[in-house]
């Protein structure tokens, strides 16, 4: 008797809430056109901080998307997660589990870097300004980095495996890998992703300790990776959620497979040790390619980590060359995040969303605000590039030393 085929992890739904669009459609339209929405920080209480430029989500009304009883319990980063999850589930044509699937067959996994800073700050101000009786009961849970996983599962009635990944900024990709492994082990559906909301006074003060943070006040010059003018990164809020589903389950219900999570690997090289990240990132790429049974020459586009620090940019460019060989100098590389900011754990999730959409539309989005490349990379700048994209590589590194690589295959790839 022949061995049963392995369960493939397929992406069947995408939901995005980003600085350049509070829906997947507007996000992709802005991304493919290379529109930069980086601007001066306008959030109350942040105006006088040294961090001047960020990617803010401006066209999102949480009260229009989320029930009041959940709004009062949760921080802005969870509002993003719940709304993006709704978009992704709608895209996958999945309703509530009691009508469309057994509730124990659907789980949730998210990643977050800092949790609900704005909610926590507000409640602590109430504590010290007015007294303990003015602190709301949800202070104990709303700030917690696992809040989004819990609230999505409660709100949607999902009772399958639920978890949160804490792995630095690269945790966004690691959450998708965790989801893929859960699907391969037998879970039918995992709602997976990452959202962040670091544009709040307390959160921004905490970020000021990062040497890699850009404090340039010109939005067109504050975040320019892979150039001689690289001066650090600017933060962003928002994120993306994906429906990761067993291919057989998706096919059975007639769902559209948009992409496959084909291979992933993660390494660790230490906080701000950017020269060492060359070896660590290259090793992650090699292992991800091996898991995906993918040759370097099959990679059609690389979505770069693009930190914007000269040493880190050089290490990433060399890591791509080390892992992909001669193909590394020819493969198109892009970093759409230069137009929206680097959203910590959410940054690679928005890259994954863009990569899946790039495969669907045959367009590699450009890298906004970047022109004078000083590394041996075929960086896509100016305007989108038409290309047949069958396989994409998404890279991510964290300020604390995590490295992660994810290989995506186009949904039309032959299942054999």
UniProtKB/TrEMBL annotation:
The keyword Cell membrane does not apply. Residues 6-410 form the Ketosynthase family 3 (KS3) domain. It is an enzyme of class 2 (transferase). It comes from the Bacteria. Keywords: Acyltransferase, Transferase. PROSITE patterns: KS3_2. SMART domains: PKS_KS. Its EC number is 2.3.1.-. One of its GO terms (molecular function) is acyltransferase activity. Pfam families: ketoacyl-synt, Ketoacyl-synt_C. InterPro entries: Beta-ketoacyl_synthase, Ketoacyl_synth_C, Ketoacyl_synth_N, PKS_Beta-ketoAc_synthase_dom, Thiolase-like. This is Minimal PKS chain-length factor (CLF/KS beta). It comes from Streptomyces rishiriensis.
